[in-house]
Amino acid sequence: MAAKAVKTGADQKKIRLRNQIIVIGIIVAIYVIANFLTGGKVFRPNNIRTILTQVTYPLMVGLGLMFIFTTGMIDLSVGAQVILAANVGAIAVQIYGLGYPGLIIGTVVTLVITELLCTSCSLFLKIPSWVAGLGCALVFEALGMILVGAYSETLGTSIVYLEKCDGFGSFLVIFIIAVVVAVIAYFIFNRTQFGYNLRAIGGGGEVAEAMGINRKKTIIMAAIIGAVIIAIGGITQLSYTGRFTPTSGMGSLSGIFKSLAVVLISGSFSRIFNDVIGCVVGAFIVAGLFNVLTLLGVPSGTGQDICLGVVVMLCGILSALHYKGVQK
Predict the structure, then answer these.
(1) Fewer beta carbons within 10 angstroms: which end of the chain, N or C?
(2) What is the pLDDT of residue 327?
(3) 74 contacts 131 by C-beta, under 8 angstroms
(4) Dihedrals phi, psi of 170, to nearest 5 degrees
(5) How confident is the model at residue 323 (pLDDT cuts 50, 70, 90)?
(6) pLDDT tens, residue by residue, 137-173
(7) Membrane-crossing residues (predicted)?
(8) 21 domain-assigned
């Protein structure tokens, strides 16, 4: 029996490795085809640099969402949280002259607080997480508009522009930060007791509690870690674009649409890739898709979103293929 179990485990690893190679090969092939269709524009140095830059924000926000969503909390207020937190950081720099410490601390602390508030509404008040997320999104959007509006006269504009301390937005720095965040996220998610507890809760809260895992404590820790990762993504994106424009009426949700797609793609690949690696793969799929569609002249907001939706569904189909051996 032991020998059979070892053989079965080895076969499953071979199948998993084979499918990982297949998926990566398909993605590379698609990039090659896209390069041909765009007349060689995809693999031009400047465009590769653009893709690597565009990967960073969806990846880091996606990794943060992965920690939060694994607990079963579907928080749709993250887009509003990022806008509010980034503007707090920008105001700390532009109005109060607090430099990089103000940018980092203001953004991170604000996002951790807002995420904990949203998580607590669901965890302690027993409100469904998606309902709490929608309600919190409206509140955080309003707070963002009120905050920026309060400083609009001083700033002379209705948008807070980060004109100083934008060093995190340069190409090499922003990409290195994303890589470091992904490595740390992988270690925490897969190589720590907390990560084990988190994945156990994701597999079934009642079973995890029966194993002696403190569910509420783990969810709170996941919210904090996820918020810090998302805040880092917000800081680098703010440094890159120079602003986060306040919005209302759930408009903030569109700001994390790509990151949500990254998480969905990662979930569809969950039987092929580790969740963190799945997020990395998903981020390159999303960034590459939007880049190629832009080069082909496909309009943003309509045609590009339709294509992204189709890709997400295809990834779900692809991840289910050739896995009968694992499901025995």
Answers:
(1) N
(2) 37
(3) no
(4) -70, 150
(5) very low
(6) 999 999 999 998 888 777 777 788 898 889 999 989 9
(7) 21-39, 51-69, 76-97, 103-125, 132-151, 171-189, 219-240, 252-269, 276-297, 303-323
(8) no
Report the distance separating Cα 105 and Cα 101, nearest Å: 6
* Inside any domain, residue 267: no
Does 225 reside within a domain? Answer: yes
Cα 46 vs. chain centroid, distance in angstroms? 24
| pTM higher than the cut 0.85 | yes
Total domains in the fold of the chain: 1
- d(C-alpha 247, C-alpha 191), whole Å: 39
Q: Rounded mean pLDDT of 198-224?
A: 84
Compute how many other C-beta atoms are within 10 angstroms of the C-beta atom of residue 250: 15
pLDDT of amino acid 281 = 92
* Per-residue tokens: 122: 């669901």
